[in-house]
Write a structure and sequence with these properties.
Structural class: mainly beta
Order of helices and strands: EEEEEEEE
Strand content: over 45%
Distance between the termini: 5 Å
Helix content: under 10%
Number of helices: 0
Length: 119
């Protein structure tokens, strides 16, 4: 899948999100308050996740597998919900399609997004 915003183009394949193109930045930095409903928006975000020894998130560990432990995770996500009362956003991480609820302060580089192709 390819996700294109006004500033970036990301390629997502097999739990890897690669920045493949950086476009010239727009003048105004978007905030969650600038988001208009009914459009697709993406943002970089940070959260705490269980990470493996390779520093990537782990889910559904099998018997005998171990994780490094909780750690900071930064990724790109598609914004699916905005709560203006609690100042939180729900995003779907393009890395592994997991959902995360984060504070407005934990998102940046907000921009309109378009899913160009689906693998």
């Amino acid at each position: 899948m390819v996700i294109e915003t006004m500033m970036y183009v990301y390629a997502v394949e097999k739990n890897q999100c690669l920045l493949i193109l950086t476009k010239p930045k727009r003048q105004k930095n978007m905030t969650p308050s600038d988001i208009t409903a009914g459009e697709t928006w993406a943002a970089k975000f940070r959260t705490t996740r269980m990470l493996g020894t390779d520093g990537k998130p782990v889910v559904n560990l099998k018997v005998g597998e171990t994780a490094q432990g909780p750690g900071n995770w930064e990724s790109v996500g598609i914004i699916v919900k905005r709560d203006t009362a609690t100042l939180k956003l729900e995003l779907v991480d393009v890395f592994d399609q997991t959902r995360h609820v984060v504070d407005y302060g934990d998102v940046w580089d907000i921009d309109r997004a378009e899913i160009v192709e689906d693998a």
